Amino acid sequence: MDSQMLSTAVKALKSHFFDVYTCKTGEEAAQLAMRLIPSDHTVSWGGSTTIDTIGLKDRLRQAGYRLIDRDTAKTPQERKELMRQGLLADTFLTSANAISLDGYLVNIDGNGNRVAAMCYGPSNVVVIAGINKLAPDLASAQDRARNVAAPQNAQRLQKPTPCVSTGQCHDCLSPETICSYFLNTRISSPPGRIKVILVEEPLGY
Ligand code: SF4
Fold first, then answer.
1. Which domains does the chain have, with CATH numbers?
2. Would you say the CB of residue 170 lies under 6 angstroms from ligand 1?
């Protein structure tokens, strides 16, 4: 079933003008991502357990890329500024909260920097997603993002939101919600700007 889902997703994403790649493992995905990032690019990323898990940031550091890394900030103001600068990186790395088999990327964001960079700014966007992110259609992808990914991310970030204890979205209006912006990416515009690497193992939330 997983391989059938994978081939359906690949076909749909390609028809929506994403460049699509498949890998067996996160390790392979990290190697491939490195090949998709020109050596003269500045690189930034959105918060992503997937990117952390596959060790891509360390590979980039070792290869000498110029990175815009908000985690190097010494003050909240500097962190905010690095997040703004990330919107003009050449390459932006992220995962997706869900990918529908009919070719949509679905993402929820608290600050908005991640979904902003997916829409516009960086000329090269590399999305790495495990097979666990696939959902049958747009509605179920949105449900996954809201009721699976967001509560787990809220838990990871130790947010005081009701989903942390129940594992379900309560449509909260907490000022600390991580669900400020919902983005459905239907088309890669221009074609090929967004590269999607689908990994045949579970990664992230
Ligand atoms: S809207 Fe609130 S309750 Fe729902 S997933 Fe987001 S942070 Fe959790």
1. 2-199 (3.40.50.10420)
2. yes
Residues 151/111, Cβ–Cβ less than 8 Å: no
Going by alpha carbons, the residue nearest to atom 7 of ligand 1 is 177
Digit-coded pLDDT (tens) for 133-171? 999 999 999 999 999 999 999 999 999 999 999 999 999
**What pTM was estimated for this model as a whole?**
0.96
Write b or e for each residue in 110-128: b if 16 or more Cβ atoms lie within 10 A of its Cβ, otherwise e. beebbbbbbeebbebbbbb
What pLDDT, in 10s, does the model give residues 45-91? 999 999 999 999 999 999 999 999 999 999 999 999 999 999 999 99
* Mean of pLDDT values over 109-117: 97
Work out whether strand 134-135 and strand 98-100 pair parallel, antiparallel, or are unpaired. parallel
Residue 108 Cβ inside 6 Å of ligand 1? The answer reads no
- Nearest CA owner, ligand 1 atom 8: 163
Q: Could you tell me the two tokens for 184?
A: 């459905």
Question: Ligand 1: which of 142, 152, 174 to mutate, judged by most atoms within 8 Å of the beta carbon?
Answer: 174
- Cβ 171 under 6 angstroms from ligand 1: yes
Instruction: Name the percent of the chain lying above pLDDT 70.
Output: 100
| pLDDT tens-place string over residues 173-189 | 999 999 999 999 999 99
Choosing from 177, 180, 181 the residue with most ligand 1 atoms within 8 A of its CB, the one to mutate for a pocket test is 177
